[in-house]
Amino acid sequence: MTLTRSQDGPDPSPDGLYERLAGFAGRAAATAGVGKDPVNLPMIRHWCEAMGDDHPAYRGPDAVAPPTMLQAWTMGGLSGHTDRSSAHEELFALLDGAGYTSVVATDCEQEYLRPLRPGDEITFDTVIESVSALKTTKLGSGHFVTTRTDVRAGGQLAGTHRFRILKYAPATRPRSPEPPAGTEAKQSEGKQHGPNQLEGTRTKARRPRPVVNRDNAGFWEGVAAHRLLIQRCGDCAALRFPWLPGCADCGSPEWDTVEASGAGTVYSYVVMHHPSFPAFDPPYAVGLVELAEGVRMVSNVVGVPYDKVRIGMPVRLEFLRVDEELELPVFRAGGED
Prior knowledge:
Layout: H1 17-22, E1 28-34, H2 41-51, H3 86-97, E2 102-112, E3 122-131, E4 135-136, E5 140-153, E6 156-170, H4 184-189, H5 217-224, E7 229-233, E8 239-240, E9 255-259, E10 263-272, E11 284-291, E12 296-302, E13 314-321, E14 327-333
Parallel strand pairs: 12-14
Antiparallel strand pairs: 1-3, 2-6, 3-5, 4-5, 5-6, 7-8, 7-9, 10-11, 10-13, 11-12, 13-14
């Protein structure tokens, strides 16, 4: 997904919507919030398993929590937040009432001041830091809302978490013309494709755009050149994927890349049935592929019916052109050519 901020300046609407939105800057969104659980080893263990992070600092009697878990200790869970202020609800009601009913998270920034340890009791305060003027993005027009949460342990500031969302009115997309009667069967036959062919001949919704930022731009440049690049730490030589700004093993910010051979095996997989999305044709298999180099990545498994995908199945990298702008790395069942 690419969000392009543009059209800076006050909302030109005569009702002064932007001035009212800007008036929320500096108001509290949550005051004296309390984390639902103290910092604890089970949550740290689950986080590390999900992230594939086995750093020894996160286990044992002197364990600390991974710094990137900062927001996890303040989240409301499925039952939601009970400590949000009226200002937060009023702001979102105002945006919804103005037609900005959709929401997407765009980015976050975190600052770490001290490590969190099992047993720490978490409290936090959240302020509405800013509401942008009207912006136009590929998703639609709307306002960026930035909140800042100060996270404390035992009353001492442990870190700061800034979270930014876009509240927007979806852009109107032109409807694709209906295909002539009797052509559906022929078009369906055209869906078998090679590595660099378009995904069928039917006009269909485009796939979501990948989020490209300063931390992963090199990966997508490699994809454009039909190369699958893996980061390698410049100090300890550990390989890592997905791309990160620093090494999870030694913390070094220095890195270079190695090119994956393209060989891999299915480490795990799911078959997607729901929810349906116009750019995809469920059911289809999404695999967690372990590359020959030892790192894992998520992508589609193609070249075999979805119900024939199996753990341990050998696969081989190829690049699938899904539309005129976008190619994606996928894995074809069968291993070596």
